[in-house]
Design a protein that fits this description.
By secondary structure, this protein is an alpha+beta fold. It has 2 domains: 137 residues, 2-Layer Sandwich (Fructose-1,6-Bisphosphatase, Chain A, domain 1); 110 residues, D-Maltodextrin-Binding Protein, domain 2. It is built from 8 helices and 12 strands. A 7-stranded mixed β-sheet has the order 1-2-3-4-5-6-7, sandwiched between helices. Strands 9-8-10-12-11 form a 5-stranded mixed β-sheet, sandwiched between helices. A hairpin with a 2-residue loop joins strand 3 and strand 4. Helix 1 runs antiparallel to helix 2 and helix 5 runs parallel beside helix 6. 45% of the residues are buried.
């Protein structure tokens, strides 16, 4: 696929940040004897990745706005466009030496995501999409799965940790879905969960308590691969609320109905 100038800028930034993160990832194992030093190291890697991405994107488009995990938001002189960036999605995986984490970059135009990149450097898988032009992984076009029977489907989610308040609701969801499906996965990187729905590896995904940078790029990947997305609470904004359901077209209605069975 021949992408737009903006998409090419995003891909180059994701690849450059990814190369730096891979070098840092090789050092994490040596730091795990001390959780504090390992945690501090990963924080530095996260911030360094964001610095690389920000410099490349803002140099190319200095008038765009900016929203990212590790820095304050910036209102651009062009109020219609902003970058939404997670420089290291899956930080806990990174810290524990698990090769499942990603760089996520989205471009928003007038409140809608129009370009998206999710890069998995450990596996050298680059997922990208532009509105109306489809979703790709490296040089291959992607489509969501066509499984339409719950017992054939694998779903992904995020299980709340620490002091997050949505554990009861998530446990209720799991109790409803697990007896009815082929399996559940919790891999800890929402951007890749959505990319995997787009690739047909998962049939659906849902999660609560997410940030815009966790899901902005993944939303477009799913939609451009033929999938559907919706808020868990009907009528709310996915990016503002940080809750979503994503699935292939065959199973989407069933998944939505199941996850909305009770107020959450």
């Amino acid at each position: 696929m021949q992408g737009s100038a903006n998409l090419n800028i995003m891909i180059n930034a994701a690849r450059k940040a990814g190369r730096a993160l891979v070098k840092d990832f090789r050092e994490v194992e040596n730091l795990q004897v001390s959780s504090k030093s390992a945690g501090d190291f990963v924080s530095r890697a996260d911030i360094s990745s964001e610095k690389i991405i920000r410099e490349m994107l803002m140099e190319a488009r200095p008038n765009y706005g900016w929203l990212a995990e590790e820095s304050a938001p910036v209102e651009g002189t062009d109020p219609t466009r902003r970058w939404i960036v997670d420089p290291l999605d899956g930080t806990t995986n990174f810290l524990h030496g698990l090769p499942h984490w990603a760089v996520s970059i989205a471009l928003e135009f007038k409140g809608e995501i129009v370009s998206a990149v999710v890069f998995d450097p450990a596996k050298d898988e680059l997922f990208f999409a532009e509105k109306g032009l489809g979703t790709f992984m490296n040089d291959r076009r992607l489509r969501v799965s066509n499984r339409g029977t719950m017992m054939e489907c694998i779903f992904a989610t995020g299980v709340p940790f620490a002091t997050r308040k949505t554990l009861p609701a998530t446990l209720h969801d799991l109790a409803q879905l697990m007896p009815a499906c082929a399996g559940m996965r919790r891999w800890g990187t929402a951007s890749l969960d959505l990319a995997y729905v787009a690739a047909g590896r998962y049939d659906g995904f849902w999660e609560r308590e997410l940030q815009p940078w966790d899901i902005a790029a993944g939303l477009l990947l799913v939609r451009e691969a033929g999938g559907f997305t919706a808020p868990i609470r009907e009528g709310e904004s996915i990016l503002e609320r940080g809750e979503l359901i994503a699935a292939n077209s065959e199973i989407f209605d069933t998944l939505v109905k199941t996850l909305r069975k009770r107020p959450v």
